[in-house]
Structures are given as structure tokens and as C-alpha cells.
Amino acid sequence: MLSNLPLFLSGLSVGVILFQTTIIAPTVFGGLGPVRSGPLLRKVFPKFFILLSILGLLNTLASVVSDMNTQAYIGIATFALATLAYGLIPMTNKSRDESNEKSFKRLHNASVLITVTMLFVNLASVVI
Fold first, then answer.
1. DSSP secondary structure letters along 90-122
2. Residue 95 and which of 3, 26, 59, 124 are 20 to 30 A apart at CA?
3. CA angle, 13 as apex, 11 and 18 as ends, to 5°?
């Protein structure tokens, strides 16, 4: 039973990422507009990356206990990438607040790339 936990956690990570990026963020942004959605999304995205960090850490621990080395690397990658994305948030917000669109776009694109990477890494573990 415990041997299924790492795969479940990868699947859960995939679901969280898809739900956040295809349902929550677009709905909030579209429903509230760019000015009013900002404060809400600034509260949601840190929690999103913290949740993914926790799932990655749990995945790593469960994989080690289950002797699933490849899956442990997926957990480590998820933890590291989510933590990195979380660390980009203050710089991204500052760039937006200071109307530094070049910096904002670069940081936002980095965050998107990190999130897509987490999605594909976890999706690969569930599909393979």
C-alpha cells in the first residue's frame, strides 16, 4: 500500500497544478480583472507553491521508504522547483509594483516554466 503513495502524491501534484493554472488563476483574473485580481492572486500563489513543496517533500520521503529511487528524484525535483518558484514571488511582485515590465515578464515567465516543468516531471512519473 505504501508503495502506491509516491505515485499518488505525483498525481496529486499534477492535479493541483492543473487546477490552479487552468481553473483558479484564469477565473480570478477574468472575473475580477487585472487590477482587482492581483491582491487575491498574491495570496493564492504562495500557498500554491508551499503546497507543491510539501507534496514534493512527502513524495521524497515516501519514495525513500518504499525504495523507489527514481520516484525520490521526482519528489526532490518537485520540492526544489516549488521552493525556487516561491522564492521568486517577492521579486516578481516588486517588479510589478515598480512597473518594471521587463523584469516582471522575465520573472513571471521563469515561474511559469518552473511550474510547467513540475507538471511534466510529475506527469511522467504517473504515466510511466
1. HHHHHHHHTT-HHHHHHHHHHHHHHHHHHHHHH
2. 26
3. 95
Q: What is the rounded distance in angstroms from the CA atom of residue 93 to the CA atom of residue 14?
A: 25
Task: Name residue, grid cell 513524495.
Answer: 59
Q: Which triple of cell numbers denotes residue 29? A: 483574473
Convert the pLDDT of each residue in 84-127 to its tens digit. Answer: 999 999 999 999 999 999 999 999 999 999 999 999 999 998 88
If you ran DSSP here, which 8-state letter would residue 39 be given? H
Write out pLDDT tens, residues 19-71. 999 999 999 989 998 889 989 999 999 999 999 999 999 999 999 999 999 99
